[in-house]
Amino acid sequence: MIYPTRSAILLAAAGAPFALLVAVFLPGSWYAGLVWPGAVLLLAAFDALSGIRPAQGNATLELPKSASVGATIDATIRVMFAGSAPARVEVAIGNDPLLVPSEDDRLIMGLAGPAGSALLPLTTIRRGTARLDTLWLRWKGGLGLVWKQRRIAQRAAMRILPDVRPVRERGAQIFQRHALQGLIAQIDRGDGAEFESLVEFHSGMDRRAIDWKQSARHQKLHAKEFRTERNNQIVFAVDAGRQMSEPVAGLPRVDRAVAAMLLTAWVALKLGDRVALHAFDSRPRIASGLISGAAGFSELQRLAAGIDYSEDETNYTFALVTLAQRLTRRSMIVLFTEFTDLTSAEFMVRAAARLVEKHLLMVVVLRDEELEALTGARPQTPADVTRAVTAAALLRDRLLVLTRLRHLGVHVIESEYDRVGDRLVSGYIDLKRRNLL
User: Fold this and answer.
1) 255 lies in the same domain as 357
2) Which residues neighbour 403 within 8 Å (Cβ) at sequence distance 6 or greater?
3) Single pTM value for the model
4) How many other C-beta atoms are found inside a 10 Å radius of the C-beta of residue 17?
5) pLDDT at residue 223, as a whole number
6) Same structural domain for residues 287 and 267?
7) How many whole angstroms separate alpha carbon 126 and alpha carbon 162?
8) Which residues of 363-393 are buried (b: 16+ CB within 10 A; e: fewer)?
9) Is 84:101 a contact under the CB 8 Å cutoff?
10) What is the pLDDT of residue 191?
């Protein structure tokens, strides 16, 4: 494809005043006014026919095999010319709903020879398989009056998986931090429910652990040492409904939840507990069995990759009752969800009230920083006042629902989107240390 550049169009338009003057003062020689645009047209035609033809240019696009959602990856673009090459080319890629360019959708490359390569930063915004099947390559002619462009078919594909970067980057750090603070050691020994050994009593131990019969027999105070029960069941219930598909800082809420879930599941598997995944929207979508051992983390990651984005309203009653029927023993249920209206929140509270009768329930929600910003901003117009009042009412309803959940005995975590993983791990370890699982 060959078409004029902006310079050619402006140069042709610059001859319009000359043609107008000729038509006014020399009406019999009006055709002389066509000399200017005609000359521009001839120069553009010469520029199009000379130099490098569009068929001589070619380009390829390479993507990594996989990437985490929310990550910035580099697509490698290679440009080749048969024979001589222009000094400067522009490359554009096709659109994909799962990928967005980090800066500009066009890549400008300088070529020192017949071939060259460059990196185009792309940001993954949703899970799935991203496919880029079209690439455009264009360059200017020697006179700068025409663009020479070629559309090139591609077969570049990349799998976008749940974000496991927190596990790789912060998992070991979080685990080590709690170990240094003594929490991991306490979990293994001292605050548990299973009797492990009989030790001599010393200052700082719980007096209720003293075994008076053994102390009388040995004529020294002896206390029972306990160990926390392992193989606790941790079930992560992920709401994948319409409200969880809304973005927070560029990523859907459900992806923020999945990242926090994977980080906590990795710690739980390290501590010997068993984990399961339950994803739902209007009905249950994923219901996995219990996974144990650190080697099972890859299976959990594969299951999390299957959580789809939904436009359905969340049915808490159907999903949580189905989950409760599958659980045969007391479990810790971590529910990731989001609510904006009191009607859906009422169904969630009723379902939670039935769960806490037998299970330990933790509800994780992300703070609505957009609403908080509206209430805290100084109003400039009457519309700003209306938005602030509406936002304050929504936050008040949200606080009311969370307070009701806490009164039922539900453990609630309301966190910023970039700290939800750390706070969830801390909450899980605290409940385990207190032997509430």
Assistant:
1) yes
2) none
3) 0.75
4) 11
5) 76
6) yes
7) 9
8) bbbbbbeebeebeeeeeeeeeeeebbeebee
9) no
10) 44
Are 121 and 72 contacting, i.e. CB atoms less than 8 angstroms apart? yes
Query: Which pLDDT belongs to residue 31?
Result: 64
Rounded to 10°, the helix 382-407/369-376 angle is: 130
For residue 33, what pLDDT is reported?
A: 65
Identity of the amino acid at 417 = Y
**H helix runs in 63-211, sequence order:** 165-166, 172-180, 183-188
CA distance 210 to 187: 20
- Tell me which amino acid residue 196 is: E
Residue 423 lies in a domain: yes
Instruction: Give the per-residue pLDDT at 85.
Output: 86
d(CA 125, CA 73) in angstroms, rounded, equals 11
Beta 332-336 vs 274-280: how paired, if at all? unpaired
Query: How many domains would you assign to the chain?
Result: 4
Asked whether residue 211 falls in the same domain as residue 312, the answer is no
The reply to whether 259 and 399 lie within a common domain is yes
Distances (CA, A) of 349 to 177, 270, 272, 277, 320: 35, 32, 31, 21, 11
Residue 163 · residue 69 · CB < 8 Å: yes
Same domain? For 221 and 298 the reply is: no
Residue ranges of the chain with pLDDT lower than 50?
180-182, 185, 187-193, 195
Host H or E run for residue 87? none
Residues 6+ apart with CB under 8 A from 1: 54, 147, 148, 149, 150, 151
For the stretch 158-168, what's the b/e string if a residue is b when 16 or more beta carbons lie within 10 angstroms of its beta carbon? bebbbbbbbbe
Q: Which domain holds residue 255?
A: 165-185+230-433
pLDDT at site 192: 47
